[in-house]
Design brief:
With 134 residues, this protein is mainly α. The N and C termini lie far apart (67 Å). It binds heme C (HEC). The site of heme C has 21 residues, from helix 3 and helix 4.
């Protein structure tokens, strides 16, 4: 085999390997957020099924959220109603948590990530999840 054709074969192989490596990277980068959301969904649903956490969340809600979002009896399809099954910014537990953490400043929803300790965030989302259909 001539030296040049060996070189060509080697480069083709190399390019193929790089392409495979890049597609694996692309797939895993794409899958990563969904995987961590799945894990977080499970954790939050477990918290929802833990009465002590829900109780703590109810108190957090009353202290910090009720002034804007109303109490449990609030009805009607408003973006600020957190007790119905309609979610405008994502219905998954991890998405409800993200809405809480990041807020929607331009709409008047504060970002709670710097104010709330993580266990309070978990608890308040767990409390909200108790109103959702299972
Ligand atoms: C100062 C008023 C205010 C307070 C306090 C507040 N919120 Fe909000 N929140 C809003 C507003 C307004 C919206 C609607 C944003 C929009 O129009 O997109 C909202 C939206 C949300 C959403 C998204 C609802 C959806 O349909 O997707 C979640 C979740 C949420 N708030 C959780 C909380 C939690 C938890 C607390 C307490 C820790 C809290 N909020 C405290 C004003 C507030």
């Amino acid at each position: 085999m001539k030296r040049s054709s060996l070189f060509t074969e080697f480069s083709v192989l190399l390019i193929a390997l790089i392409a495979i490596a890049l597609s694996i990277l692309a797939i895993s980068a794409h899958a990563a957020p969904a995987d961590s959301d799945n894990k977080r969904d499970t954790e939050l649903l477990t918290a929802r099924d833990t009465p002590a956490i829900v109780k703590h969340g109810k108190k957090t809600y009353r202290d910090l959220c009720q002034s804007c979002h109303g109490d449990e009896k609030v009805t009607g399809d408003a973006v600020s109603n957190l007790f119905d099954s309609k979610w405008y910014h994502g219905a998954r537990p991890a998405e409800i948590e993200r809405s809480t953490l990041d807020g929607f400043l331009e709409k008047g929803m504060p970002a709670w990530k710097d104010a709330l300790p993580p266990e309070d965030t978990t608890a308040v989302v767990a409390y909200l999840l108790t109103f959702q259909k299972r």
